[in-house]
Amino acid sequence: MQSKSRALAVVATVGAALAVPAIASAHTKVVFAGPPPSSAKLLPKSFAHKFNPDVNAFFQHRTTINAGDTVSLLSATKTSGYYHIEERDSTKGWVYARYLRVVTGSTAPVTPTAPTAPTAATTHVGASAPGTPGSAALHGCGDHLWQHVYHPQRLLVKQECVTVRGTIVDATNGREPDGARHESDGDTHSWLQLDAAYRDMLDAGNTSDEGGNLVFEIVCHYTVKQADAKPACNGFADHTVIPPVGTHVEITGAYVQDTNHAKWNEIHPVSKIVVKP
Question: In this structure, is the dihedral angle defined by the CA atoms of residues 111, 115, 116 and 121, taken in order, positive or negative?
Answer without folding.
Answer: positive
